[in-house]
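== Folding the chain ==

***
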Amino acid sequence: MAGPRTQRYYLLLHFIVILWGFTPILGKLISFDEYKLVTWRLMLSAPAVAVYLLIRKGGTRVSLNSLLQMLGIGILVSSHWIFFYGAIKVSNVSVTMAAFSCGALFTAFIEPLFYRRKIDRWEIVFGAVVIGAIAMITQAESGYALGVLMGVLAALGSSLFSVLNGRMVRKGNDPGVLTLVEMTGGLASLLMYGFFTGDIHSETFAMNPVDLGWLLVLSLICTAFTFIASVEVMKEVSPYTVNLTVNLESVYAIILAYFIFGKSEQMSMQFYFGALLILCTVLANGWLKFYRKK
């Protein structure tokens, strides 16, 4: 039976996942487009992580090769966020999170490519079920097809950088330094993109007080704080429990969106059946891997 200390970490983990589930809500509440949103998120959260690293006073040495790899992953992270918030802007939170839920299954296919192992036949079965569920959701909510596509691309990006980050951590790189360099790389890529396309102008850095308030919540609480807290949680809670709990992010987000936004988030029964099918498949895949390890 878990002791009081471990139980506190379990509660903290669920609180972190609820905060992550709140990020798509904030994406809908903040009025400006996905490019401006992600750029501001990185501009505010990167300094917060840097302050944390300075206070912590941990080792920060990184080889040039690792530094370049981290910067490259940062570009992938910013692209993932662009697709994620773009999906919310063209559809809604429920559609985006249902499509985004297939990320864990993407990881099941991507991971063997990087770690040179065979793809398990059950992973093929689970992948086929998720594809069918995505098709079901797209058919049920055909007006949101672009949102589904962008949500799936966001999930693919999330899976890629999760696997790549796993390799970087296994090489001995500090997770805090890894996060800061990736945020810096993502921000630099967005600013360069905006400079050459003309998306950076006076209005890019202008906002009303309401948007600023929500953006501070997104950047400081739902990004910087959750990163720091999740690193602490992983010292006490098993990776399996963490990964399984993180899968509840979509459930929390869809429930929160339903109560906050009302009719704009009400979907058909076919949509909810497809979303439930994806969630059950992801949980089944996680349970199967845990059972085999034991």
Observations:
- Residues 108 and 123 are 7 Å apart (CA to CA).
- The mean pLDDT is 84.
- The longest helix spans residues 64-90.
